Please model this.
Amino acid sequence: MSFCEEWDVTYQQGSQMSVWPWSDLVSLVMRYARPLSKEFRVLELGCGAGANIRFFRELGVQYYGIEGSSHIVEQLKKRFPELENQLVAGDFTKELFFEGDFDLIVDRSSLTHNPTIDIRECLNMAFDKMKSGAKFIGIDWFSMEHSDRHKGRPVDDDYTYTDFSEGQFSGIGKVHFSDAEHLKDVFKRFNILHLEQKIYQRVIPKTELKFASWNLVAEKMS
Ligand SMILES: C[S@@+](CC[C@H](N)C(=O)[O-])C[C@H]1O[C@@H](n2cnc3c(N)ncnc32)[C@H](O)[C@@H]1O
Model:
């Protein structure tokens, strides 16, 4: 059985099959964590349909991924047989599974589908598995400013919502919405190097949706 049931169903239905690297992730990796050797070790939390795998394979680094949908992990192992032992179906808020420390941990919109207590637990484990000077790059952590937040109901804590009646988050379980102070708090063991909020409002075709999310780069200092 999959840990992330809603995501497993989503992938089995062929939805959310993002397979090209996310441009913000590419930009921030190249700016803050450009790999200098083939020994560079990267861990991706919630690799989903593998959008960022080809980017890291192209860089020639050692890539590891943890993902809650066992269905998509099986698909990924077929697409990337060389990563058979470096892709794990599991809950990254409970265990980080792999031996050894990492130079970079990335997460694009995955931790932001968990409640605060689990995010803190995962970031503590991540911190402990990072080399000194290693970076954590978080892309698209949803913002409190996102207009679809109001389509869900609060659950677990002040930042987490679920049961979205419609819109971008319908059918995918819990979504965590952050403000800058909350991010500074959950990343308090790290040195935050970069924090930006993206707010998009499409004009043509017109939509009422206000998309808002955070990108963050944090460093382990000791
Ligand atoms: C929005 S998708 C992002 C997928 C991928 N990072 C991307 O950007 O294309 C969120 C992913 O995080 C995974 N996820 C969320 N919480 C998780 C957890 N606690 N443990 C493992 N995977 C988790 C889900 O299964 C899903 O694949």
About this structure: The chain has one domain: 5-219. Residues 3-4, 7, 18, 22, 46-48, 51, 66-69, 91-93, 108-110, 113-114 surround S-adenosylmethionine (CB under 6 Å). The longest helix spans residues 116-128. The chain is about 25% helix and 25% strand.
